Amino acid sequence: MVEVHKVSGTANDGNVYLVLDERPILVDAGMVAGPTLKNIKKYIDPKKIETIVLTHCHHDHSGGAPEIKEATGAKLLLSVKEVGCVGDDLTTVSYLFGQEAPEYKVDETVSNGMVLDIGKWKLEVLETPGHSEGSICLYESTEKVLFSGDTVFPDGNIGRTDMYGGDTIKLIKSIERLTGLDVKTLYPGHMEITDRDVNRQIQMSLRFARSVL
Ligand SMILES: [Zn+2]
Asked: How does residue 9 score in pLDDT terms, banded at 50, 70 and 90?
């Protein structure tokens, strides 16, 4: 069975997920690497992590990337649409956290329809712009798992669109796309993991997004 553990360590961090399949990956890197690495070590030697995939470039999901990359030796994947954000305080919104955006190397870019084969799970990359231009979600269709980044959160919540590259119309279209999936477990970029009638929760997110347009 594939295990997923939330390993982010500080309150301001975006959620970081350690996915323990045949080829372990990390979904997002959080902002502060130290506590995250400590949590990872509860489950696995960090050097066994092969891949870090970022749902988007925002600092609370990527600030810890250089240190985690160094500690794991994993290759780092980011949307082809957000490679240019790396090291930029505005597009990564690191300024909101009073920090400078760190530089790090993107080893591979991802785009819509790509599949990350990590063993039992094949994670499909869905481009879901709106919260940021190159936001992605990852969907696993056999166990119906969605890593939603900051596109949707539990209980009908949605990613904010009032930062660089944000676009509410695009966000609505992206959430419409997510409502076409069958999702049993949602691993959001903030808030808690949920498996409680997730399709309905995503429908609520869509209604909410439409209402604030
Ligand atoms: Zn974000």
From this structure: confident
Ligand 1 center from residue 59 Cα (angstroms): 8
Whether pLDDT at 85 is above 90 = yes
This model's pTM is above 0.70: yes
61 Cα: distance to centroid of ligand 1 (angstroms): 7
Structure tokens at 55: 């749902």
Q: Which residues surround ligand 1, an ion (CB under 5 A)?
A: 58, 150
What span, in angstroms and rounded, lies between the C-alpha atoms of 109 and 153?
Answer: 25
**Domain locations in the chain as residue ranges:** 3-211
Architecture of domain 3-211: 4-Layer Sandwich (3.60)
